[in-house]
From TrEMBL, chains A, B, C, D, E, F, G, H:
The lineage of its organism: Bacteria, Bacillati, Bacillota, Clostridia, Peptostreptococcales. Pfam families: AIRC. InterPro entries: P2CMN_synthase_LarB, PurE_dom. It comes from the Bacteria. Coiled coil: none annotated. This is 1-(5-phosphoribosyl)-5-amino-4-imidazole-carboxylate (AIR) carboxylase. One of its GO terms (biological process) is 'de novo' IMP biosynthetic process. Residues 117-246 form the PurE domain.
Length: 246, 246, 246, 246, 246, 246, 246, 246
């Protein structure tokens, strides 16, 4: 019995006021009608469902996928090991695996281009590539044109300048960097579009598992930069996509 | 002698190739022609110039403003004490002061509305208001419709839900919070637009000058959230404006 | 128009279904009827209203008190400086000040004893007393019998044992300690009732503003201990009261 | 020769005063008679004995259980690996294993219901479940009605509101959360009963093995919340039980 | 009625067994007779009473001294400001002040030499002297021959070697150092006696208020070194004295 | 040619002044004659040689032992794995292994009792035993009477008091504790002898690999306590022995 | 078409001014002519190419080497496992492996001595040797005379003084140390040449993976010391070489 | 009686061997003859004496200067407040004050140019200037040509490139930066000379008093960079000078 039915029953006298009041109080929140509250993003048309694979067994992931398949929506799973992919491949032959990104994709319907411009993914070094790939494939799967330029860290800044045209033509930039994490600052000083900074846990010694690059990025002098969690390529790709839809 | 003049001189034979080459190499970078590089954002039309007031003397700030006034652009200065405002007011009577935000504004020309939607600034508590005000006035001065709802922290979550309509109609949201810093997570789970999280140094004990709320925000489970530096209201307002222009 | 009125109007035909639906959706959340949601604790009978004084001006606090006075409820304000009290005293002569606890109390109606047993507040040293007093007066104002034993730290453990009877007869214990913060562990090993541990920022050197005692308390081997924020006497007093009502 | 015998011997003249004095001084502390000191909680009737399994060999645990079996009391062991359970099963066939909770239970006598109300265990995400299960089974084994609602984190807050009735009817709430750890704050703002917050080490990047959620919880704006150590489900279950007996 | 009186009363039949048992259980712990428990160190003959002055008002300190004066014992107070000394001087003219050490001394009876050898206090730099002086005067007042050599840090190691004879003849060494804190390691490698390392909060930048020197000292490769809290000159002097009595 | 020979040669005219000067300058430091400098502790009679086994291969350790055997001194090696012992046993059948302590001992001559009193090793819990055993066997091998009482942590303080006589009769106490690390504070408040506090990395959650207990111990209110590095049982045993010789 | 060609074409009239301007703007940065920008260090004559091996697969490293071999330059790769060397040895038989340093070298042309003096590598302990070896072989391969003295830590300072002549004759010193990390301070106080301090992650307990030695070195009182990242032997060797060329 | 005199006395028979041996052992270390040990840097001709002014009283500084004046050497004092300079000016009229650098200089003899090339001091922002000035004046006073370019941080990288010629012509570079601290990385990637990185405590929020820029610099990907302590301009200037003399 949903909100409208309750009102109708009250109107028709099938339901007395006190029972109606009591029902309203225990009615699941989602039935009250705040559109965004009762309809979780991932169950809308066109948008993929997302599974965070870390710490889930192969069977659990397969189970979740099974339920999602019923709705016919596209599916994206992050932090998936190769072995898990091999396991799932037998069950869902249409599954695709991006090994570097550790991402699984099932395209049950054609991905609709919702991004209005180009998202550009940059990395400081080659070791940052797995995190960048997670961002890349997330953004792409969410319906964006994504371009990538890797290994353009600030310690060899001509590499960055060689790609100035691509940088200048992006609508959103994701800058992934470990070690000193200075890439977003330099890029942020060059462009007029939002830069999403992703610190990575790449590095050794006083890097302290990404703390160094995280702090660098938070303290950037350049305006227009914001930061996501260490190694959170998915978060950056998702946010970039959200901005690119605007 | 700028880039074009060099080329013309070469063409006309007034300049030999080697001298031209040498000139090109020593030519200030800004004359070479990468649009974004040689034209710093702040000197473009319509955009205000920004001064970071912390650690500058009254005289230094007055000096910088003087130079900026010559260009006729709008001027925004952050982290300005009341005494500094009083000092500057005597020199530039058109100056405006937002006391809570500690922001100075000089509007030499009418602010052009460049933002396409509404930016919403939320705070968890009343103590977060100064940082939120910095974000608010920054975004407004950069040409946006900005709305604010303060003191809607998660420990009294009905206050947040009372404002659901405003939250749902924003194009970009700035969520400012100290203490446990959970506001952006809850908001991020409700909306489909970018949420810029601003941790504040409000709190005591194990807050450790904002570290607690910073970590909370970086670790948010909600997608579409990114974080700026502790107490960095300006950065949030600037980024929100940049996104809202897209 | 509240929830019941809407239902009645629907029943009586004064309100059509769609308008009712729309009203329900925009009705302030507190009107929907989740008892705890729409009725904030502090506006209930008997319970004092609480103001967190830190970072508020004298005028702001006076303003908040003014509104609260209208409801006739009791008022508790924490983190109040002596000067603020002097200022408020002129406006509200019935105001009382606990100087050590930095707490202001206004008793508009007699405090009802809601606590079923005795709450005991212990401190490790004399420097922890201000935090303990905040806990003491909070719990007392919330309707509890509260007893206090100060300076019974573990480095002179006979002092603690001299008070064994009082310790054994408490229903809830608040153990406040800085420095090494070991008091809750020893007490927790002796009693069978909940121990609320409050680390204080008392100490020097490697105390790091209470971090040392906070970590000690979190790592306690004794069962039945939980921890509130550093110097958070109010939080401990409030929680102790909540438990003592059960 | 215990305390009473000494006194009797003195009275009967079999023991002179000085010898009696000397005996009293060297008498084991537990014989002096402070009820709570010489009788450790776990040896009382009805209460289970608890073993902390981490870092103990299978043989050691079996040895401890053997001694406990002699007393006929119920036995609870935490942090037990599956292999250890398999080993112990052969020796004590009546042993039960809660795999998610990693808890072993031996019920030598019927568990007596000592809790007066319901304890509710909540988690923010699915990854927090093992810690929550440790709390659940601990509280249940200690004689409480326990209910659990998992995966109701604040980033999808309608899930929490769908369970409002259960939340409102609990006498003590255990809120388990990793990542941003905001669940206890939201819950604490809704209810009037004690909330025990358990940070988990779930998360990545700037979670720093639970530090992020620990700090969030300590800094909660909601009153009535206290915190136990990271991943300390047992501690939360034990404390909840202690409160629920009051 | 103390322990002996109870026994006598029992023997004489003035007290029945059960009443005696009950009295024993509630008797203050200090009367039971564990020498070290019921007689706190500071109330023994010859030993000075110690007051930790930090955070106490002038009046409080005067009050504590007053009580101590009655017992006629020597009095030592640490962390005493010059103004406090001036205040106390008027009340107790026999008071002495060591300004650098911020220590007050009252010698009600002649200090007895209890130390068997020489205690040597070393500092790395001149800025460490106040902490060293606190150690020096504490050890001296506790009845030891104390010698001091200041500014012999490892960055000019010949200064240390110039004092080799004194270093070799000490029975206990206190090594006080800020900045890199390496002095105890070098000294510990030269001598065969206990070295008490005192980190100081002297330094700037990455010293982090003494953390740097604290960690250095804890990690010393030399054997025979132990560490007290940052800036804890008193603790080092006290421990050195305790060892020197052996 | 040592220092004396140079002087004799000069005296006899076999060596001219300048050559002698030059020789003196390049003479290995150990020949100059500062007793402590040129004679490293470990090569003296009666004292065992010590090897820190961590990070050394079996072959390296065997090689070091071989050299030491030639001098006929006793040998102690710490942090030795069982496999290493098995390997060494074949080469040096007289080798002994203390498995819990992970210590190897070779007794080439009878250990001389140099300690004047008893050293007592305490632990808070059973998990601290390996570190305590390292301290125990180190002190014993260095010629001391050592006694041990394990699992007497402050959360069940009667266990500690049951051993008061042993505690009171020790000349030096080593208190080993993980978790909250409060044992040294309580013990230090009871005795008049030096207490060496050893934090262990035992614990979980906010213990942060021993940081919690380290800070607790550094911040102890009790006098006469000093701290060695986390898990450094050897250092504690060595220092205790050094003090006990005095 | 490079910069010169553009100018020539303009001069000859084959290219109009606007097209030339446009070409200049998109011309890769390296063609503009800032010597240092467009010519990366590693592609110059005589200098080896450097590969950072960590996190690269055997195939990736082989691929990079293949490209480098074509240029005929010398090749240095750091952080290379033994297995990787075995793999590469089959492909490039001229490859050399320094096992302790985990460095691979290919000498396609004779190394030219570019260093003007001697570089000296010191370590505090034997565990620091792998890091020191990385520095040693890096500096040697870059064309320097390098000498090494290991295990001369400050806890046995005579070992250091025994090598005073070598220390005094170095032009640049690399001091590698873990644990307390005091070696650079002592050495820096003795010499008049630059000292490059390398903290290592050697140690246990409160060493915190090198943080302790890092902070020690940063806080050194001696002048002329600077610090590289924890365990960064390569960085130290490279910088020493750069200085030694001056 | 110095080393040579002892030898002569022995030769002449005025001193017997044993007395000579004893004298040698107690002879101040500096007389033994290790050139660098017995002659501290600062007492050599030409080199200025350096005073670290922090934490010294005006009188102490005046006293130290008085002694130094007697030797006629040049004097440099750092961390000197304006008031101290005013005080000293009256005593030593030849004293010079660099206000921004907070440095005092007394030039008793002409500064000799010992630097072989140019030292360049860069800053990221204007707030870093005081630290940079300390480096600048230190290096200049030590006999170097020093040039400075301020406010060329990476967030506006064209400013850096506009000064490429100066950057390319330096022999040693000091790069001073707060906030994200990325300047040394970018510069280090452009040049072939040593870069000394100086983190400053400039910034707010997650800068944590320079920790952010310190970590950034330690983690730099560029080779040839080393780091000094936060705000340690003097250390950078001194080291740069030491390198520039080579």
């Amino acid at each position: 019995m949903d909100l409208k039915e309750i009102l109708i029953s009250v109107k028709q006298g099938h339901l007395d006021i006190d029972t109606a009041l009591s029902k309203l109080k225990t009615l699941p929140f989602e039935d009250i009608g705040y559109a965004k509250v009762d309809h979780h993003r991932s169950i809308r048309n066109g948008y993929p469902e997302v599974i965070y694979g870390e710490g889930k067994t192969d069977e659990q992931i397969a189970g979740i996928i099974e339920k999602m398949m019923e709705k016919g929506s596209n599916i994206l799973a992050t932090r998936i090991k190769k072995e898990t992919y091999d396991y799932l491949k037998n069950i869902y032959p249409s599954i695709q695996y991006e090994e570097l990104a550790r991402i699984i994709k099932i395209e049950n319907k054609k991905i609709e281009k919702v991004g209005k411009g180009k998202i550009l993914v940059l990395t400081g070094g080659t070791c940052d590539i797995p995190v960048a790939e997670e961002a890349y494939h997330t953004a792409e799967f969410l319906g964006n044109d994504v371009e990538k330029i890797y290994d353009v860290g600030v310690a060899g800044i001509h590499r960055l300048f060689n790609n100035m045209d691509k940088i200048m033509s992006a609508r959103v930039i994701i800058a992934v960097a470990g070690m000193e994490g200075a890439l977003p600052s330099v890029v942020g000083g060059l462009v007029d579009v939002p830069v999403i900074a992703v610190p990575t846990s790449v590095g050794y010694g006083a890097n302290f598992k990404g703390l160094s690059s995280l702090l660098t990025m938070l303290n950037s002098c350049a305006s227009g930069i914001s930061v996501v969690n260490i190694d959170n390529g998915f978060g950056a790709g998702y946010l970039a996509s959200m901005i690119n839809k605007l």
